[in-house]
Prior knowledge:
Helix content is 62%, strand content 10%. By secondary structure, it is α+β, with helices and mostly antiparallel strands. It has a four-stranded antiparallel β-sheet. A two-stranded antiparallel ribbon has the order 1-2. Helix 2 runs antiparallel to helix 8 (287-298) and helix 8 runs antiparallel to helix 9 (301-332).
Amino acid sequence: MRTRSPFWRDARALAVLAQVLVVVIVALALAGAMATLRRSFIRQNIHLDWSVLRQPAGFDLSALQWTVDLDTLRIKRYEPTDSNAEAIIAGLINTIQVAVMGIVLATLLGVVAGVARLSQNWLVGRMALGYVEALRNTPLLVQLFFWYFGIFLQLPDGSSSHPPLRLLGSLVTLTNSGLAVGGTRVERFGRLVAEGGYQLTPELAALVIGLAVYTSAFIAEIVRGGIQTVSRGQMEAARSLGLTYRQGLRLIVLPQAFRIIIPPLGNQFLNLTKNSSLALGIGYAELLTAANTVSSQSFRSLEAFTVVTVAYLMVSLVISAGLNLIRRRLATS
């Protein structure tokens, strides 16, 4: 008859016991921290008052466009008579807008720069290296100031003496009033402006481009590293089948590299989303700006910034979940 070994010699039992102990210790630490925080609140006569979120906001920030009516749960235009919670939601919508546009643009620029880093052309490779090093080694806030004050505010004003810049066959119009994609050009007060289409204010355009360009430098190195982890034999096999270098890169190498680089790529997406809070420096109202305004007017900083913390956490978890889903699908394809 086989005797059962004592639990202190069972590796599985010890592993379970260790996990239980860790959970108990963390729970006790959290309970102690909450008790200390509660005593501190009582001692300083601080009381959480979440009713501040239902009070009228009473402020109007030009960048706050859309929010959610908490009574009907419908999208509507933001107005100063809306509640503080709806003002924070308007800022959250702006943050999500910046994150989506920035992630798409940063990924495109990063992939191009990462591939260029491995180019056999000496000039292309050195230019890509300079692009990456210059952007990675300068502060993001300085770059945002450069794009806003040094680029967008210095663009033509659209007058007859300073006509707007037109790119891509007049598809994109650039003035110091912002960037417009599509739409029609009409004259307003002696200036040509875009009417209709998709328009970005100079603050929003500078923020999106600044975040995307800065993050693309890090993504470029991630892409370069991912490509180099793929065996050289893959490209050699592609060339032996008659594929060009670009075809082999697009059809063979990059799909394999993307499976490897998704985790570090996700980190950069999260960094870009959180870095959008620097919009406060160039006057664009996003989640942090809206919450800061609510805090300064209601003097309820703890409640406002608790909501901001939870909002950033939820957005980050959604991005992480989406990338994990993509990674699993790529792994099974």
